[in-house]
Amino acid sequence: MNPLEAERTRIQAELDAQRTRRQRNVMGQFATPGSLALEMLRSARDMVGERTSGLRFMDPAFGTGSFYSALLSVFDRESVAAAYGYEIDPHYGLPAARLWEPSGLRLDLTDFTACRPGDNGRERVDLLVCNPPYVRHHHIARATKLRLGRMVAEQLSVRVSGLAGLYVYFMLLSHRWLRPDSLSIWLIPSEFMDVNYGSALKEYLLSRVDLLRIHRFEPSEVQFEDALVSSAVVWFRNRAPSPGSAPEFTLGGSLGQSRLKRRLPRDELRRESKWTRFPAAGEASDVNGAVLGDFFAIKRGIATGANRFFIMDAHRADTLSIPSRFLRPVLPSPRYVKCDVVTADRDGVPNLERPLFVFDCHLPLDDLER
Predict the structure, then answer these.
(1) 111 φ, ψ (degrees, to nearest 5)
(2) Per residue in 183-196, pLDDT tens?
(3) Residues 32 and 5: beta-carbon distance below 8 Å
(4) CA dihedral of 253, 256, 260, 262, whole degrees rounded to 10
(5) Where does the chain hold its CATH 3.40.50.150 domain(s)?
(6) Topology given in CATH for the domain delimited by 3-277
(7) DSSP at 282
(8) Contact, 356 vs 330, CB < 8 A?
(9) pTM
(10) pLDDT tens, 305-344?
(11) In this structure, what is the dihedral angle of CA atoms 57, 151, 164, 237, given to the nearest 10 degrees?
(12) Which residues are CB-neighbours of 207 under 8 A, at least 6 positions away?
């Protein structure tokens, strides 16, 4: 680790310690590990080739600069003509600006989504690498959603669901910053590959740009110590999709040594709504037999909005003297289920080492307070 990266890592840890986990969760601030940033920039070098000059780089969610640090380690500094960064939070932006000022970085402490090419002399770029803020939709103000949605619709004629996280808007609004044939690499939650609100992003990747590759980490390969979210890295170029091209899907391991890989024709990706089936699954086929809906009533469960309060184990429920009629058994996240079949006792409680319950009470608040 070079001295600048060592100092950046120290600053990152110090700044993170000054914020609570909840504060960083609301802001979607989960720093990219330096090792992963290096992997991503090495892949960029392999795709960009040996450029001797003129490379323009941008990170629109700069943080303390893990990607910029990796850029300086991987690319010849003389080949980088300009480097731009945007960071909305001065808590991270000001120390980063002081650290990287001697390098020639142009870092703006402002909202990237409100900026346009040409502002403050910023030009379109050849290489954009970003880990956008993972702000869930319920932490985005309604006025902000409307503003971002209008901007995306005006620029790309794409409608974004109100359930989309901030990273979806970041990716789509970055399009105006891309030079023709420029390369973009994004580290984002893999949820977009399956959920309905990811459809706008998938349509963009299939129709507006040339999707090159998606690498999905296994659920057990958590990339952020303080965020239990499965991650994916997405590569694409700002050019029309090549006829007959087939983006590569890789799974598990590292970016350079994945566990599985497979190329998928775009037509097949358009027919498939659940992209996390790939690369492991074969081609989607029509279902002729029974489906889950034939045996179960499938619907969304209870959305608490505060799982730490409402989800509890039996010990906590006993401590709080909560009657059993107000406790519904629930399954934990699949990452905590170690068996293929979960059985239940006569009361419907899963036979797990630590069964969980959701507090579900419909009594009036006055009755509860008594």
Answers:
(1) -80, 115
(2) 999 999 999 999 99
(3) no
(4) 150
(5) 3-277
(6) Rossmann fold (3.40.50)
(7) -
(8) yes
(9) 0.77
(10) 788 889 999 889 899 888 988 898 988 888 778 888 888 8
(11) -40
(12) 241
